Amino acid sequence: MLLCTLAWLLVILAIYFMPALGLIVALFATLPGIILWHRSVYSFGFSVFITFIIATLTGSVMIMSFMMIVFVISALIGRLLQERASKERILYLTTIVSSILTLGLMMILQSIQQLPYAHELLEPYQAVVDQAIALQDLDEASQEVLNASVQQLAIQMPGLIVIALALFMFLTLVIICPILRKFKIATPVFRPLYLWQMNRSVFFIYAIALLVGMTTEPATTMNSISVNFQIVLGFLLVIQGLSFIHYICVVNRLHISLTIVFVMLGVMFYPLTRILGLLDIGLNLKGMINKR
């Protein structure tokens, strides 16, 4: 318990005094909690209590919020590992929970004026856009396009945060699982990319989000919600499209170097990959190829 508390204390100090280093340290932040959860749940709870008191002494609301998320995710991963959950399920659940907690805490902090709103966060970007407009002497149509891009980015921020958290949780699991095995904690492995298969409900929800986006006025609440759903679900469709590309490579027994090239091309041309993923989920392209 003492080592876990000291490890979390180092995380707090790193984030407080060296924010850039804190980004790297954050990838390992759940590790002490997961190990302690497997040793003793009661010790985990006591360590959380002590660490949170220390976090409050920093006076930083951001650090306290971050540590709250770390505590919850540590307990969640620890519990899922005890249940022998698949790595994909762990990634899915940790992304959902961390997204809900992050967006919820952001709304609370914004309501108490401890965190700027999205348009305020983008003020430096808006200043750059205004400067570019002034230097380039753009026409009115071009100015509207650039200003609309800033407004659209502010609307899309929740969806982009969810995607960033998904990538962060993926990296976290890739890093901490081999370390957990050193502590005699059984961890699953990710299945090969070609075996990843999204639920067909993603297809229908994405279609509904597109329909809502086309039938509602821009910048309205419903339109903003549909836009963020499109971003997150579009990300899942890209993954499904990459899975299909990998599946084609495996079926045709291509060399691993060619497989990597095709997957990288899929990442580069992600709009086409997203369409491919949509077709794979909707029409079960893998199943069609398998039958042949």
Structure explained in plain terms:
The protein folds into 2 domains: 190 residues; 101 residues, no CATH class. The protein is built from 14 helices and no strands. The protein is globular. The model has no long low-confidence stretch (mean pLDDT 87).
Features:
292 residues; mainly alpha; 81% helix; 0% strand
Q: Let me know the average pLDDT.
A: 87
Give the fraction of residues assigned to helices.
Answer: over 70%
- Quaternary form: single chain
Number of domains: 2
Order of helices and strands: HHHHHHHHHHHHHH
Strand content: under 5%
Say how many strands there are. 0
What is the CA-CA span between the terminal residues? 57 Å
Rg computed from alpha carbons, rounded to a whole number of angstroms:
22 Å
Please state the structural category.
Answer: mainly alpha
Residue runs with pLDDT of under 50 for 5 or more positions: none
Main β-sheet: number of strands, strand sense, barrel status?
none
Number of helices: 14
* Rough outline: globular
Concise synopsis of the structure shown:
The protein has 292 residues and is mainly α. The chain is built from 14 helices and no strands.
Topology, please?
Elements: H1 2-17, H2 19-25, H3 31-39, H4 41-57, H5 61-82, H6 87-111, H7 118-121, H8 123-136, H9 140-182, H10 201-215, H11 221-251, H12 256-268, H13 270-283, H14 285-291
